[in-house]
Amino acid sequence: MKKEPVISIKNLNHYYGKGSLKKQILFDINLDIYPGEIVIMTGPSGSGKTTLLSLIGGLRSVQEGSLQFSGIELYGASQNKLVQIRRNIGYIFQAHNLLGFLTATQNVQMAVELNKTVSQSEAIAKSQAMLGAVGLQERASYYPDNLSGGQKQRIAIARALVNSPPLVLADEPTAALDKQSGRDVVEIMQGLAKEQGTSILLVTHDNRILDIADRIVEMEDGLLARDSQGTVTSPNPESQKS
Ligand SMILES: Nc1ncnc2c1ncn2[C@@H]1O[C@H](COP(=O)(O)OP(=O)(O)OP(=O)(O)O)[C@@H](O)[C@H]1O
């Protein structure tokens, strides 16, 4: 039985600029991502990775083609609908984007409290449990400035995964980290994602972490040049049949 994809992209094109300055950046992208899959996207600088990630994350409007998130079409979606969709996605960026005036717990708690039905005490308990899961229980009351890069990135992971979203998007999450911290961070992401059945799409130039992927896709000049689906261990048994 084949599961429905979390992300289904068909014939997607994207352009920047207007009139004579209009330039096509993405060309006929087709990509499906299935529940629980960890997909790594690589490719040279300027090949369109961040643009594609921001379209998938509902951070930009789809101009041409189809992009569905859990069966919901993003092409032509209103800003309100995009906001709703963003609530179902966890984001992890190179610059962790933590708020400096909030403690580790409060940074995670903010994400939990987007769900209005959760009480404050539940939100605190959930945030602390998640910080425990990323190995930061001792640092829950610290402010980001007093933590290392790797620890800050682990808070960002806790924040992205605390609501068990179906999809996490990560843009160069290890770029600012040393080898060991980078490794720790992706292994924590991988463990939590597998536990929760979350799909991860991770953009990276970091060759040291490619082995955590179920599948590697490569962008080149705005095209999906390579998709290793079925050749790397995939959690989707259907995709492994030849
Ligand atoms: N807001 C924008 N307006 C115009 N052009 C843009 C804009 N953002 C990106 N571009 C151009 O689109 C192309 C793709 O950029 P994008 O950031 O998606 O690539 P990337 O693969 O993520 O690169 P990197 O690995 O350096 O982050 C580049 O040529 C870039 O200069």
UniProtKB/TrEMBL annotation:
CDD domains: ABC_MJ0796_LolCDE_FtsE (cd03255)
Alphabetized GO MF terms: ATP binding; ATP hydrolysis activity; transmembrane transporter activity
Superkingdom of this protein's organism: Bacteria
Entry keywords, A to Z: ATP-binding, Nucleotide-binding, Transport
Keyword Transcription: no
Residues annotated as domain ABC transporter: 7-242
Membrane spanning stretches: none
A GO CC term attached to the entry: membrane protein complex
InterPro entries the record matches: AAA+_ATPase, ABC_heterocyst_DevA, ABC_transporter-like_ATP-bd, ABC_transporter-like_CS, ABC_transpr_LolD-like, MacB-like_ATP-bd, P-loop_NTPase
Signal peptide location: none
Pfam families: ABC_tran
PANTHER family: ABC TRANSPORTER, IMPORT ATP-BINDING PROTEIN
Protein name: DevA family ABC transporter ATP-binding protein
